[in-house]
Write a structure and sequence with these properties.
The protein is of the alpha/beta class. The protein is built from eleven helices and eight strands. The structure holds 3-methyl-2-oxobutanoic acid.
Length: about 280
């Protein structure tokens, strides 16, 4: 019998059951090595389409493709063991019809083995979310600021800062919850609105720039580690890794140039005879 304890991965229903309970801790990751670290402390790892901006240097998330998400989603699954891995559906892979959404999401689930997908949009996506959930695809919603709509909204601005804007955002969150999503990301909304949404829906709200009123929080890993050159107001930098990485690279370059690296301890010698 194996002496290793089996670690059970969290599931979408586990996260759904956390409504109003212990805060749901989420971070993004796009790679096996960061997933390994995040997995030890977080309930959910989101393979966010923010990878387009963070990893690839695009100005927005719009150019991200399904193949990019699948490649990184698979890497994150290989690097993690216990967190629920949620893969973001990229722009253009799910909006045209429920059938298009099902085909894209099924590919993501089959090819990455992740536990759920996330898609942006409220009332306009409710029918699609219901269609996916009925067919076995757990969905995390995303309302408030929806970065994939940048070309129609014009800028990455906080939402709901005047009361007149609250009703449609609250209706979006309710529609996503009623359609069967297991949780919903609420991005960049005013605090009182986040509180209203959190008490109005029966699923956990995961805030990013949406105050402590939410049932959980998410940040982009590189933003909170201090690796992103510019970050929104809502990001707290928990680390400042940039200067440390810069110093390591500069030390390496200096030692290669001065021929002090590799040193004798990094060099293979001849194998002793007879071994
Ligand atoms: O793409 C992403 O990283 C996200 C989070 C910011 C919620 O959607």
């Amino acid at each position: 019998m194996s002496t290793q304890q089996e670690i059970r991965r969290l599931t979408a229903p586990d996260i759904r059951a956390r409504k109003g309970g212990e805060p749901v801790v989420c971070l993004t990751s796009y790679h096996a090595h960061t997933a390994r670290l995040v997995d030890r402390f977080c309930d959910v790892i989101l393979v966010g389409d923010s990878l387009g901006m963070v990893m690839h240097g695009f100005e927005t998330t719009v150019p991200v493709t399904l193949d990019m998400m699948i490649l990184q989603g698979h890497a994150v699954m290989r690097g993690s063991r216990q967190a629920l891995v949620v893969v973001d559906m990229p722009f253009g892979s799910y909006e045209a019809s429920k059938e298009q959404a099902f085909a894209s999401c099924a590919r993501v689930l089959k090819e990455t083995l992740c536990g759920a997908v996330k898609l942006e949009g409220g009332r306009r996506m409710a029918e699609t979310i219901a269609f996916l959930v009925e067919r076995g695809i757990p969905v995390m919603g995303h309302v408030g600021l929806t970065p994939q709509s940048i070309n129609t909204i014009g800028s990455f601005r906080a939402q709901g800062r005047v009361e007149a804007d609250w009703a449609p955002i609250e209706a979006d969150a309710k529609a996503v919850a009623d359609a069967g999503a297991f949780s919903v990301v609420v991005e960049a909304v005013e605090e009182k609105l986040a509180r209203r949404i959190t008490s109005a829906v029966a699923i956990p709200t995961i805030g990013i720039g949406a105050s402590p009123a939410c049932d959980g929080q998410i940040l982009v890993l590189e933003d909170m580690l201090g690796l992103s050159p510019r970050v929104p107001k809502f990001v707290k930098r928990y680390g400042d890794l940039g200067p440390g990485i810069e110093k390591a690279i500069s030390d390496y370059a200096g030692e290669v140039r001065s021929r002090t690296f590799p040193g004798p301890e990094h060099v293979y010698g001849m194998r002793p005879k007879g071994k």
